[in-house]
Fold this sequence. Notes:
Layout: H1 18-30, H2 40-52, E1 56-60, H3 65-73, E2 81-84, H4 91-98, E3 102-105, H5 117-122, E4 128-131, H6 143-153, E5 156-160, E6 168-169, E7 172-173, E8 180-184, E9 197-201, H7 204-214, H8 231-235, H9 253-264, H10 266-284, E10 290-292, E11 299-300, E12 305-310, H11 312-315, H12 319-328, E13 335-336, H13 345-348, H14 377-382, E14 386-390, H15 396-419
Helix pairs in contact: 1-9, 2-9, 3-4, 3-7, 10-15
The structure holds pyridoxal-5'-phosphate.
The site of pyridoxal-5'-phosphate has 15 residues, from helix 4.
Amino acid sequence: MQSKGSGMDPRHPHRVSPKALEYLKEVVDYGFGNSSGPGMTTRFEKAFACRLGMGFGISHCNGTATMHSCLAAAGVKPGDEVIVPPLTAAATAICVLHQGAIPVFADIDELTFNISPQSVEEHITPLTKAIIPVHLYGLMADMDSLMEIAKKHNLTVIEDSAECFLASCNGKLAGTIGHAASFSFQASKHLTCGDGGIVVTNDENYATMIRRFSVFGYHTLTGRSGGVMPKRERGDPTSIRHDFLGWNYRMSELQAAVALEQTERMDELVDQRKKIGAMFLEAVKGCSWLVPQYTPPGYDHSYWTFVCRFESEPAGCIWQEFRQKFYDFGGDFFYGAWRLIYNEPVFQERSFLGGFFPVDSDLYKGKYKDYRPGLCPVAEKLQPKLMQFKTNYVDLNEAARQVGILRETINYFEEKREVK
Ligand SMILES: Cc1ncc(COP(=O)(O)O)c(C=O)c1O
């Protein structure tokens, strides 16, 4: 059913506002000029970079392509190593494979679930070129320690901030500390345009290389938003466009129209999830067997999702029983943690690129370690225990109802335990 006037679906009254329709209309009305138009990608890039206080924003079609461009632009080559955490969306490691480089998995911290700087340092070899820390579930990784390690070993740090908008650590925002940072606008994220991504950086040369890698390697592109090859030059038969290989990772004007509207409401959209995260935090207070992701002093969590470690023995039930009871009481669907990336068959069997990736060639000989069990013991212990509760509610009353159901479920098992 459509609401009168705005034409927006009333089930999502705040997620995408009528302003997005105005921006979309601008794009459609213009009719997609090849080198001119309403400049939505430029407006989006400028607005996003400005809110984060960063010099450059480079839009992409998603938040995986972003990281691939960042790796390529940092000079990461096939056969180099890139350190990533194992508990994250597979995209964090897949972009490394897209560059022909080798993902090396560092373990995570027991309490924050984020990549452990100590484990990162232990995994550095002469082949290491970059680190991709993930700000998991909306909580920033320990960026100060990671930047110190990176400086010591001359490594590039690309923040995977796909799940982390406007979180901070000691006043510094997620995405503003590494050499570059990647954000995703995929459907589940704080801000969305269905699919989309953006890189931010303060380094103009790096920004230029990232943009060039993201659009066919066009030699006239720079880090600045809105640059196109002048039409006269482009139209000349002697014109040179490409002096190196790049991909086509452009964001469309339609995606950018919605991404711009979302960016203009970034604070509002993130605050909603922060409020809901705080409500969940209150609900699990005092429960010894449902322990939330730890937010260290000085950190502000942005709660892409609210995640707890579930301890089966003191709870007196297994993970699946708890989830079923939560559903019985009317709870929403919730996810367990992703399988650790290196435990996915694609890594276990190294069936990269459908088996065409030359893992047995001289380039990789002796470099691929076995992705064996025991590689990251903390992550392996935690992964089966995690529960990810949804914070993506437009209606705070519905969120409060879900939080109440979680409390009811906890009480149910607490009482059962007391009777025993
Ligand atoms: C941590 C993390 N990194 C990267 C991505 C990839 O983003 P996209 O789906 O926009 O490619 C996601 C989620 O989609 C994610 O959660």
